[in-house]
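COURSE: Structural Biology Practicum
ASSIGNMENT: Worksheet 4, Part C
STUDENT ID: 0417
INSTRUCTIONS: Below are two proteins. For each, the amino acid sequence is given first, followed by its structure token string. Answer the questions at the end about the second protein only.

PROTEIN I
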Amino acid sequence: MSATSHISKVSHTTIHKVSHTTTVKTTINVDEERLTRIKRTAQNLYGDSRSLSELFSDAAESFDGEAILEAFAKEMGWDEIPYPSLREIEERRPTSTEGSEKILRDMRDGRANRIS
């Protein structure tokens, strides 16, 4: 087995903050080299040695779009945010009587004319 085809994995148990009062315990598998880089980056960013739980909780939080949107709405003073359903999104999409192939071809031709 070549050195590049072998990847060592390390399992770590981490507690993720799900809400303000509830945490869940989970196990994740992370490449050992990647985990070393994550720890080094955290040390550089935060200047201290945060626990793995804090690091992964922060990372998971950055992917929580709903919480980010709710925090933004709160900061803006909005009482509620209407979340449209997929059907509502599809119904609001603009439609064209032309085929998409023609629209794309026209856009590409227009770009080609502008840059040539």
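PROTEIN II
(use this one for the questions)
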Amino acid sequence: MGAPKLTLGYESRTAAVSALRADGLSTAAIAARIGIEPKTVAALEASAARAKRPSLPPISGPAVGRTVLIPFQDYAALRPHAARRAFTVDQLIRDIIEIVARDDMVDAVLDDGPAS
């Protein structure tokens, strides 16, 4: 983002757009008055609206998750197991991960060395 540009006596183009909009001017009229494209007027207004919104709280809670990439061949190998349970493959993967984590079964599933 560049430095604010003094525009029509306002400290920035965004301030000028906001003031002219408050005066009831249309997007086209604001653009013509400032000497910018109408799409720039819309972009400046959107940017100003974003800046006024409160920031979102940190991600937490039961509905929050992460995206994990599953190799295609592994995803495909799970299809018949999901179909037998009338699940989607995604639901099957979520259930497997949830059960393994909840029941502390990681060492049993991986069987890659002594349990910790």
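ANSWER KEY EXCERPT:
Q1: The chain has a mean pLDDT of 86.
Q2: Residues 13-52 form one domain.
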